[in-house]
TrEMBL record:
Keyword NAD: yes
Presence of keyword rRNA-binding: no
GO-annotated biological processes: amino acid metabolic process
Taxonomic lineage of the native organism: Bacteria, Bacillati, Actinomycetota, Actinomycetes, Micrococcales
GO molecular function per UniProt: nucleotide binding; oxidoreductase activity, acting on the CH-NH2 group of donors, NAD or NADP as acceptor
Protein name: Glu/Leu/Phe/Val dehydrogenase family protein
Amino acid sequence: MTSPFDSGASLDALHSPTIDHETVLVTRGIRSGLTISVAVHSTKLGPALGGARIWNYGSWLEAVEDSLRLSAGMTLKNAAAGLARGGGKSVIFVPHGTTLDNTARRDAMLDLGDAVESLGGSYQTAEDVGTSANDMAIVSERTRHVSGLPADRGGVGEPSDATAAGVYSAVLATLDTVLGNPLVRGRHVTISGLGQVGGRLARRLAAAGASLIVTDVNPARRALAEEIGASWIEPGDEHLFETDLFVPCGVGGALTREIIAELRCRAVVGAANNQLAEHDGAEQLAERGILWAPDFIVNAGGVIYLDMASRPGADLDSILARVDGIGETLRSVYRSAAEQGTTTLAAAEKLAMDRLEGATLRAA
Ligand SMILES: NC(=O)c1ccc[n+]([C@@H]2O[C@H](COP(=O)([O-])OP(=O)(O)OC[C@H]3O[C@@H](n4cnc5c(N)ncnc54)[C@H](O)[C@@H]3O)[C@@H](O)[C@H]2O)c1
């Protein structure tokens, strides 16, 4: 049976006789006319928290399917991070060839706000791929169930600093596991994707003395490579370079069967969501002797920040300590996988499922 958390799920999920999700709202925005899907996978641990994605898809059904998959992933991520939060995600479907001007974008965000509000607080949205803190400020005109607003609007700002800090902690834990110590100086690291998270991570690794190869499909990012003394390569073949760590920080699905077969690294640890193009990619990586850091453990810094910073009396030091704890969580996943003879993905999923089952038992 296909796992509900299978990152390679297909549209077949839409035809299965049951649904894993608690609520799925598919609506046509009254202002924008755009299809919006808000999927609440689970509220067992608390109100669902997960970002709002605005993206081009081939059809609205593909957008719905993406929201189903991404919200299930948020249940895992939030549970594994030890948050009292369930998993949810929203997706605004923009047909290929359609571009949104400022008015249309504002309309889409107001429509999203209405959709989120209609769920009565079972789901809280935030920024994600294609959306920003400023978009969330517009969403907040229609609902209070939104986080990550700009600081000048009384919000906690966008979460990339925390995500990058969590990935850095995961990098140290991974170096320690595969090379016997967490020293960064002199280690070879290849980063694919120099955006909000990858860029911050690259700066930090360069400052700590790593030898960096970096790439991005956006040629403008080359300036950062020059600034921090990293070697820039054109995107496409970055996985072929021999390195200690391969760090995917671009879009999901980067680890296809072909890429995994060609990787020349000790470990893969990166920010990108849903890195495995196929669920059995975890087995393929393990067979090749490459340690894979499950993405939903590694990139939880942002959601930890959004959850903790939006609570009354939030204290930055405690948030940073919790984000830094991602390294320790990852070490426990590595240990458990080694002891049980499973993949790191199976160990990470078990960690999340144990927390969900613990909550179910406490509620019974
Ligand atoms: N921002 C966060 O707090 C956060 C939190 C959790 C997970 N993530 C995940 O981390 C990843 C990066 O997030 P971000 O906020 O930095 O996004 P971003 O859009 O700022 O940066 C992504 C970068 O990757 C580049 N890119 C895209 N496809 C590429 C490819 N095939 N090869 C090389 N580069 C490519 C883009 O040009 C861009 O510069 C995403 O998968 C995102 O879902 C981000």
